[in-house]
Design brief:
This protein is mainly beta and 747 residues long. 4% of the residues lie in helices and 57% in strands. The chain has a 22-stranded antiparallel β-barrel. It has a four-stranded antiparallel β-sheet with strand order 3-2-5-6, with no helix packed on it. β33 (595-607) and β34 form a beta hairpin. The chain is globular.
Amino acid sequence: MAHGQALATLRGTVADSLSGQPLAGVSVGLLGQPGGTATDALGQFQLAKLPPGTYEVRVAALGYRARQQRITLLAGQVRGCTLTLASAALSLAEVTVSQPRDLNQTLAAISHIDQTLRPVNSAQDLLRLVPGLFIAQHAGGGKAEQIFIRGFDADHGTDFSVNIDGMPVNMVSHAHGQGYADFHFVIPETVEQLKIYKGPYTARFGDFATAGAGEFSTKTSLDRNQVKLEVGQYDTRRALVMLDLLGRHHLLSKKPESAYVAAEYNFTNSYFDNPQHFKRFNGMAKYTGQLSDKTSLVLLGSHFQSSWDASGQIPERAVNEGLISRFGSLDPSEGGQTSRTNAYAILTTALPHEAILRQQAYYSRYYFNLYSNFTFFKDNPVDGDEIDQRDTGRNLYGYTATYDRDTHLGVRNLHSTLGLGTRLDEGGLLLRRAVRRQPTDTLDTGRLHEQSVYAYLDETLDLTDRLSVNAALRADMFVFDFRGQIADSTGAFGPLGGRVTAARVSPKLNLYYQLSPAVQLFARSGFGFHSNDARGVIRERNASQALPRATGAELGSTFKPVPDLVINAALWYLRLQNELVYSGDEGTTESVGATQRFGFDVSARFQLTRRLFLDADANYSHGRLLERAENDNYIPLAPTFTSIGGLTWKAPTGLSASLRYRHIDSRPAVEDNSIRAHGYFLLDAVLSYTQPRYQVGASVQNLLNVNWNEAQFATTSQLRNEPSPITELNFTPGTPFYLKVNGSVFF
């Protein structure tokens, strides 16, 4: 380049070749040149300060066929281009391990492979896509699943954040459990992408993101319409319809837009002795459009409702003594109803100076009513110990905004994100005793008003062509407000009310080194937290216990030792300042003190042949209570070793088959390890045949029909004729051999 010759700039947009919608997160680079970039939320990219000349531009994204295009740049020129990518069959040889825009998503390659290979037929299947995450259902399918990840019994979401399209799923100060994440309002076939974040290392996740976070995204458009029917054992029925409202006409428009509706209905009596009468309806509508070259709009509305009867958890002695079968019930009046209505709008705007502003406003209307009986006749030997927990009508309001900008610090790329947001939960909470779903005494009643406000600054700097640093600072403030009445330990009913304000600052620091095109190394660290239930915070009047801090770090790598093998491995450490658990069943807060966990995660995805794929996850954790004596410091129900994996065969004729396993080891159910929750090993199988106009398939859960316990707790309970309470393992039996078949029509 001659002295003083002006440099050139290449700007472009990458879109899906079928829908015309812009693609975010696409890798963009120049062959033979170090560095590169990725498309923003509007599918746009920029490569600046380029000497004039001819370049080969390469764009690539998971699930798409990589494309190269030759472009000549003149001195001082700002040239634009538009590139389209077509979807392609999965080939692990084409999977890259670098993440040029969202470096903290180190499991991106793994999660994309899983979404492509693993069949998903329920919201539970979506959660199981998170490597190392196990779930347990213990209320007839209508309640949120119990979540196990990285050595946490995260209850229903206390230490794992779940989000869909930027909208939170976890509920604060819930009637049944802190962080309650009922994901059943999501239709699985509408989910397009999953991003996984382990540990408290990512600034845009705050409350509940201690062990990690799962970020799901629904489709922007449908490739085709679909009607699906599914039938199975135990009177199982499911119907699904997904309809594109604009057809192909939108492709004729200069500005792409799409709109679709989807609905599903489920019914099953399940495998318990008492029919479950489980019913669920989901409906949603979504619109995505380009208002201009610089602005896009997304609108979504959805509604979910469910009702069920539950057999509940049963003590081992009731089965051993022949009082009931493994699938029996001691209180067949358990069960409940729940509903959630959602609406959101997302406006994304390209601003001057290569910046993007994303704004989202969301609203949810939520209702929950659950009848449970865990102790049977311990407190009330005549009528039983059934309780009724209710969210009597919650309004959830939220707003988030992020400002993203790509700049330079000297000659190095700098990506900056400024985020802010607020969330407000308002509604009534109620805890009562009940007899066969007829409420009796009130234990806890009042009105919740809880608001959080946050802001964060996230900076990613390319220190060299291979080394990047991500540093962030997040600040959260919570206002806990509850006005009501609550019964004390003697049963006396008295007022509980007040307001407590608490704040938390959480720094993050992460390093990423691209050792080679096939090896990425990372070192990550950060602080996080999960909030406590508002009633517990106000009762204790101690702001320091409202947002207990989590401190985490990990070392790891995503690498490809051979072209067809992708491995992600990490050694991690996590300490909680004060592990606080809200027990919705008792209406009280329990502190177990400080806890410490460390372990390793390994995920491997291997394409054995063009048609045969192997996957496996192995996760080990060692966790202890730090303020108790040795051998009395086990963390109850914390998993120590879990593994999931399988073989998948995909033929070009449309035939595919999968054989999968799930394993969790036995683990302490109490602090002294005197009672243990039983581990299990299960095999599942899936077979499907897909053609352009139809699909047929079958699935089997628990192929070997083994007896296993899904949910397990050490509970002190008393049966009707027992003279005194007994503490032992109570459990919900897992699914026996369970066959389902399905058929779909595409048009």
